[in-house]
């Protein structure tokens, strides 16, 4: 009888220990798992301000806000952003098939068929593009294609102010119009051109 009791005691202790271990594993897993709260919305309209003035107006058919260590907002079904100057005049328009807004960083990442165009006829096409709200800058390390009324450019590495008034291409892969002697080096002319592969410095261009 004593032996039987000892056997059942050992067996019961083993079961309890196993259950405790399983519970501990589940508790640890639950504690270490990053829980993400997701808020969803449709037909989104948002405003970005600059010193109390309207800086940008965003519209998107769908939004997903993900809370966590680095909260962000996804726009998975296209995005459209209008940028304005201090006089509330439309400066340029940005569209993309996907965007992610990092709320704490004030940065927007755009990808897939990104298009930026301004009111004077310049258009930027690329696959990825960042917008830094605090600095009011666009930038990307990827390939870009720019077309305007007077020129077409290709290259990699791009930076520009949000108003698109002047932009820099790090590595140009197409013809670049060179300024005439004595002219502003940032203002291209229509009288001469030279293969950009011969240029070793970033090309800074002011749209015409």
TrEMBL record:
InterPro entries: LipoPS_assembly_LptC-rel (IPR010664), LptC (IPR026265). One of its GO terms (molecular function) is lipopolysaccharide transmembrane transporter activity. GO terms for cellular component: plasma membrane. Keywords: Signal. The keyword Signal applies. Residues 180-208 are annotated as: Disordered. Residues 1-20 form the signal peptide. Gene3D superfamilies: Lipopolysaccharide (LPS) transport protein A like domain (2.60.450.10). Pfam families: LptC. This is LPS export ABC transporter periplasmic protein LptC. It comes from Phnomibacter ginsenosidimutans. The lineage of its organism: Bacteria, Pseudomonadati, Bacteroidota, Chitinophagia, Chitinophagales.
């Amino acid at each position: 009888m004593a032996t039987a009791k000892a056997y059942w005691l050992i067996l019961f202790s083993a079961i309890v220990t196993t259950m405790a271990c399983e519970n501990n594993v589940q508790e640890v897993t639950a504690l270490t798992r990053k829980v993400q709260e997701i808020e969803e919305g449709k037909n989104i309209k948002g405003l970005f301000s600059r010193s109390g003035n309207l800086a940008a107006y965003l519209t998107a058919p769908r939004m997903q806000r993900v809370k966590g260590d680095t909260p962000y907002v996804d726009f998975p079904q296209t995005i459209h952003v209008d940028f304005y100057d201090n006089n509330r005049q439309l400066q340029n328009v940005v569209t993309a098939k996907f965007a992610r807004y990092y709320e704490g960083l004030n940065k927007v990442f755009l990808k897939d068929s990104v298009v930026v165009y301004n009111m004077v006829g310049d258009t930027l096409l690329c696959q990825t593009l960042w917008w830094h709200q605090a600095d009011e800058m666009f930038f990307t390390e990827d390939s870009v294609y720019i077309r305007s009324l007077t020129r077409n450019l290709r290259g990699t590495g791009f930076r520009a102010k949000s108003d698109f008034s002047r932009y820099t291409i790090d590595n140009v892969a197409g013809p670049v119009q060179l300024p005439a002697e004595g002219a502003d080096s940032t203002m291209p002319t229509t009288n001469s051109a030279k293969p950009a592969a011969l240029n070793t410095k970033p090309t800074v261009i002011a749209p015409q």
